[in-house]
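Residues pack. One example:


***
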Amino acid sequence: MTAPPLRHPWPAPAKLNLMLRVLGRRPDGYHRLQTVFQFIDRQDRLFFKPRDDGRIRRTSNLAGIPEESDLVVRAARLLRDRAGSGLGVDIRVEKQLPPGGGLGGGSSDAATTLVALNRIWDLGLSESELTELGLMLGADVPIFVYGHAAWGEGIGEVLTPIDLPEPWYLVLVPQCEVATAAVFSDEELTRNSAPITIKNFIAGDDRNDCLAVVRRRYPEVSAALDWLATVGRPRLTGTGACVFCTFATVAQARAACSMAPPRFSAFVARGMNRSPLSEVSRV
């Protein structure tokens, strides 16, 4: 597979957190975590048009996301300044992933921007250098640069590749956005879980320590989890708002999706151990 031509899209896939344990709070206020990331075949699409005047612009209008605070703009500027480049770019973002949904949409867009512009601007930064820049933008950006399903530790940036089954997922999108910072600052959040191993996870220990807090704070998420329990085993990705359950076949997932209440957006997606961004960038 070759890298996309300049006018063709670069993928920014979603992820699911298949487990999330909070081990403790660090002196800097961040939390020590254990988690498992897997990609799904739902994605945003980004288009890049290089400029030679050093300007970085987002040409798409994204409701509720000012250009100056958009992670794609911040990522492009960070990369340009890190490399000492005089180049610029126009960036168009076609959004499919909901904000505040726990699918990593903004972080994935930022990672795709780093990876694509490193290639387009011919900067030659290594994956580890891009990962370091990504961590400056957010704890979820490194997994999207890394590009493989992974066991995550630290604040989610210490990654170990893991090969998982690639099932079909039914994902519900409640009509709310979850404030991750509010969940992690909640006094009732479990912060002292004992660490587990990959073997423990594979054996079925896949709880999410944020679940109880998110249920209490966000009734729409709680309602989505309750409905999913009628068709499968409901789970929360990250701090949500999105919830999901697993099916062995696409037919089973689509049948369940067809029964989802209209109050929730719902879609079916395939689990993927390798990111489509990784496929186009490592040629």
Observations:
- The CA atoms of residues 102 and 238 lie 5 Å apart.
- The radius of gyration is 19 Å.
- The longest helix spans residues 105-120.
